[in-house]
# Entry
Amino acid sequence: MTIRRVLIANRGEIAVRIVRACRDAGLESIAVYSDADRHAVHVRAADRALRIGPPAPADSYLSIDALLEAAARSGADAVHPGYGFLSERAEFARACEQAGLVFVGPPADVIEQMGSKIAARALMQKAGVPVVPGQTPADQSDDGLLAAARAVGYPVLIKASAGGGGKGMRVVQSDQEARELVPAARRESAAAFGDGTLYVERVIARPRHVEIQVFADTHGHVVHLFERECSIQRRHQKVIEESPSPALTPALRARMGDAAVAAARASGYRNAGTIEFLVEGRGDDARFYFLEMNTRLQVEHPVTEAVTGVDLVQAQLLVAAGAPLPWTQASLSTRGHAIECRIYAEDPGHGFLPQAGPLLLYREPSGPGIRVDAGVEEGSTVDVHYDPMLAKLVVSAETRPAAIARLRAALRRYPVLGIRTNIPFLLRLIDLPEFAAGDLHTGFIDEHRGALLRSGAPSPVALAAAALAGTAARAAGVSPAAVPDPWSQTTGWGR
Amino acid sequence: MATRRVTLRLGDRDHAIDVLEDGPTEAEVVVDGESVRLARDGSLWRSEGDVRGPAWAIADGARRWVYHDGCVYELELQEDGRRRPAAAQGSLAAPMPATVRQIRVAAGDRVHRGDTLLILEAMKMELPVRAEADGTVNAVHCREGELVQPGRPLIDIGPADGA
# Structure
């Protein structure tokens, strides 16, 4: 099977990331866009771009018909789904296969099996991988879910059976909360995944979220690419990810890697996937439980790329074309430490309200060990229809303290003005002594809420710059800017 | 050059900045009695010897955005002592572009502080809009399924009956 032209069924930073991999691999890239994304970064990055519909995701990035039509129109021979949207819809993978397109991901029946929490759990138990107590009740009425919550034992987590990413997820402490929160969880689940089926699971106290990257080819090879610690989350959305995990001992890492490979092998997996675990306790004796498998490329994959030195997206394209994995387990190792911060358009000072509007000023940091994967640029407008993640800042260095120091310096040189972002929040977070100590758990942000949301008075320099800003355009207009300088570009915004 | 005073409001506090010099590449201001000399490079401002690094600032109408020392501030330019009128009391507005998912009250309903009046959805998340005080719903200005823009009044709340 030869792949020459790849349709990218996604938008934003991940579409740009896939375009880059295609370019490096000598493949042609085809972007798709909704009317809201006509001028988006990913549209201009690709070799060619096709309109697929109006802004609402259901009519564009979630429309299988529109995407298949774009694939046919462009003569694409493969489809990369990215993450989110249709990436974990078996129906989409199957439709691609039926249309004679290579789906860059696992086979449709594996997506189906791992997408169903019941089937995935049963499979894991059979493969000897430990699981968290929980159930998907056959009776999906409010009463049925209430009974399931009681049977599992409070506190429980109620979440979408159909997908990951934390959408539709609720922690429920009592019968009363179950009655209140089940309808909203069902609505969000239906809105995000087109399926309102809910799953009820026991809550593990102060767990870490540690996941193992796996990769399988069509020749029977399955490897893991070590772990990512993703405990820093808010409302079950990851905020900071790193590798290696500050908590894993070599023995625990080996056990989890073996379990992940066993899980991938048992499911008949192919291409890149991630096995998410909850880790309870410390040291060699810590316990880990299978949480779920993400049958796609993960948002935080650059963390693994930074410490292992591999290109996961290029490997996805290779394996999809039928080639063997470019690595063996023995050839894979990690070096140094990498940390990723997700840059969200949200206002931490006002309940993390998602922000929409123009990026009047947007400047990315750069330098050794700094990688920014962004779906926006200065002048972009953040649209209400899509996920509020603007970019990912990934830093790597020899040690964890050196990586944190580099991350701090990079965030301080990452000005985003015009809408609020979580950048100041991230800076306060990585400055906490508990973060430096690696004392992480999934409740970390809630536990440190007070310190994280504090904000001080502006410095005299900040006030001076703000007072003079209105005249900056005039000044730049008359300045003899003989040397082009990225810091002094005029943007046409905000004057 | 004559001194020019710029007043910037952050929250409920006004900051007075006296501009002594405002050249194409250099500027000097006095902030709270402290003199600050700045080198200008487009939207980037440096203060010599400031180990906290440069500041980035832009103007957006009367709004001034600035990033310095890892913090973002959104300030409002105050002109000639005029103040912008506060948002109409008792009118709840959309905080951002969003779709009205569910309306839970109707005109005439009595509501209590903290009651969820309607649910907005934006960026795949539900955002409840709650009553800020006890009162009576005077009018509902939106429909379920409607896309609303920020600042658009959604619901008017009047005083509670007999209050």
